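Hi W.,

Here's what went into the run:
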Amino acid sequence: MKCRKCGRPAVFNMRQHKLALCEVHYPEWFVAQTQRAIEKYHMFGPDDRVLVAVSGGKDSLALWDVLLQLGYQADGLYIDLGIDGYSVASREKVEQFAAQRPGARLTVVDLRAEYGETLPQVAQRVHRGRDKPCSVCGLIKRHVMNRVTRDGGYDVLATGHNLDDEVAVLFGNVLHWQTGYIARQAPVLPANRAGLARKVKPFCHFYERETAAYALITSIDYIYDECPHAVGATSLRHKGILNQMEEEAPGTKLQFYLGFLRAREEGFFRERAEEVELRPCSNCGQPTSAPGLCAFCRLWERAADR
Amino acid sequence: MEAHVRIIYRDREWELQGRRRVRDVVKEIGLIPHAVLAVRDGRLLAEDVMLEDKDEVKLIAVISGG
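Here's what came out:
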């Protein structure tokens, strides 16, 4: 296989694009494609301040790396959830990454230091996290990301979600006909007056193997291991099934996603206004659909009672 | 001379005999080629690369998240 740009041996082949590239031209292509997605979906411009949510995994670190290369004002946010072994290792990767890049500013929010408990501790205490802490984890991360984006004066929050992530979520929501969730899935979630920050996914057109290849070729040191709680997660199972289909028919995942976005654009999935009415939480002021306290503040209220 | 290739994936290892391509090796040990990347001496290998005698190839799962 030869690089389409220079004819030297290719190191990476994308069957769905019928495109093979070498060590030099693949990272170039990857950076240019990211810029294209940012423009295509009007995600943000050079004057905007971007907060990148980084986990220590390949996607978020690659995203931060690419945004810095493209010259954006991109700072990082790492949330230390206090998950045994995993959080220490992932935090180290993120701190190393930031230290190697002069000008890369990193904010760390340590859950235990700020709220008194780690994720596993909170999850064990509340009903919502009884079986698995993943739902509590999602809730905590969404809250903290939104708070830091607003308090830090950022224009937009960027996450490293790739096409496989998006397709796995879409697939799961279609299986259960979660029409409300389906209507809300998009590369850009606009800010709203209630105080939800603007959220964007600049990697939404990349396959997971493409972000992994970029991280490997550019020597980004990321955490290979899965979060121990994600083992057996439905979305991982869906990813496996989708990859099986992709293997047999290259482009399956890409078509599924792009077709969805087209249908969405054409108004196929309409959000019902009454489903999304938000008001500020009586404690933290962040938007919530619940009367009184938001779900995040309710997590800690029960701790305070004890 | 028979080629001898070592494959490493997570905490497992395979010793394979005979010349073959990266893609075929991945299928042979029961993985989906689309879901892994192959690395030799720290460098990424395209799926059609013919492995040589004494090659040591590390396979990296690309799936993450939950």
